[in-house]
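Re: duplicated header lines in exported structure tokens

Our pipeline writes sequence and tokens for each protein into one text file. With two proteins the header for the second block appears twice in some exports. Here is an export where it did not happen, for reference. First protein block:
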Amino acid sequence: MLTNRSIATAREGVLASNKLIRNTYLLLSMTLLFSALTAGISVMMNLPPMGLLITLGGYFGLLFLTTKFSNSALGLLFVFALTGFMGLTLGPLINAYLGLPNGGQIVAMAMGGTAVIFLGLSAYAITTRKDFSFMGGFLMVGILVAFLAGLAAFFFSMPGLSLAVSAMFVLLMSGLILYQTSEIVNGGETNYILATITLFVSIYNLFTSLLQLLAAFSGEE
């Protein structure tokens, strides 16, 4: 039998979850807009690729700082620093695809596909409130394997492996969106900065992977 205390506790849990969802998606929207701005600047200035070492160093360095200060206001500064940096690195990639005969269509389809997948999976996880925490270990191992395979494809110039990695990332990032949204809804994640970063990285990787796959399927790569 439910007591007044248990009902109040459940109500507080729902209110906290709803507040976390609002804060996460508000911050996510702001970081996506900021990243789009920096990517647009990079495209207009036709900036060259930063190189693998600078890209990975900047990403993991800013990710470490964001995580370290995630419980303070300084964490917000590093969130925008990280997402803005990722936008800058995205600019040269978008320019490369826009240079293809039907590059504009490929970029638009990748953006649309990313939006549909993210919104669909997020809505499903929020409305059903299903627990996808069991996916955590699998996703961690899968992302590590895909990352290492991606490095191998880059250094050894293996386009077939690169496409396979992109397909893996589409599946893994879709799973990560379900997992992270489930953690937000069910109380597994209580920090909206960390939740935002996870969802942002999922969207970023989903978009870049779809770009490569769509270009390959259209015969442009």
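Second protein block, exported in the same file:
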Amino acid sequence: MSLLTKSERERRKVEIVNSFGANSVERFSSVVEGESGITFREQSKVWLKHMKTRKRKPVKPATIVNWEMALNKWLLPLIGDLPLASVKNGTLKMLVSKFDEAGLSPSSIRTYCRVMTMVVGSLKDDDANPIYPRKWDYEFADAPEIGEQRRPSFTGEELTKLIAEFKGQEQMALVLFAASGLRAGELFGLEVKHLLGKSVRVQQSVWSGDIQKPKTKSAFRFVELHSSVATMLRNFIGDRKEGFVFAARNGSPLRQSNFIRRTLHPALKKLGIEKQGFHGFRRFRVTHLESNNVPQALIDYWTGHAKKGDGEDVQKTMNQIYTKMDKDAAFREDVAERIGIGFDLPKPSLVPSVPRNAVEVDVENAVEIVVK
């Protein structure tokens, strides 16, 4: 029997190791997964902290709150103590079944499952490669497809009735919602300085009482108002030179949740109008613009639309690239005046607004309004 040379012995050793699969990618992944003891709960804390503080494409506070709810109410009680390595398609299938039994909508099921997949994918090596790469199979999990979503919208007649139910600040806010199509955070983030002639300038948004940047880059814009609405808004503001247009007693911006719960929904119930939120006003406005043949470029500009659901830029057509709607204020103002608002304004017009924490002081037999 001839002896093997040194190089032949090394080659034969590799062949034997490979024959048992010890050198395979699958074997390596198996060993790594088996040695890692991190749980889904532990990694979810790391992931959530990163999402709250990342500089690139920062996540809005409202989104963070929704993710935290998904984790605390659903995911952590069900899979929080599972090793991250064992969270696979079988786990996805189990979650879909549990969510379906709880009566969650297809959209909510997909959203909560996506949080799970983001947590699993967030554990990476030093080269940013996922430690536990997964090909998530929603067909295997029998996840329900997201069909036609409920998208209620107001009619002009409904808005006329709704607005007539209120006076003062609430009435003005409802008028501006319907006549501008602003998002709730944008409207409640308006300050007096943002009313410029017949336009409002969107430069900020508010959520849960805190000021933040608007939703997207395209949300920084001017929105032209019909002259009747601009006059009504100017009369509502009166002599105020600063502060939020719509303010609470302490001068802070109104909270969206309070406005819906205390103002909008009770009135809709009283009037027999379908229950809906702020998007009902935006849908009404877009429908009004489309029915009056407003160019799509202007609709996109006024509504601040230029993003897909995943946050990436929409691929624009060449015509959209060359359209500079933000530069043509005269055209925008002409269109706003020509198409009207699609509902009736209340009569008489609003009186100037005074913050609720104002007091009257008699100064040399004249009554002045002093704002704290």
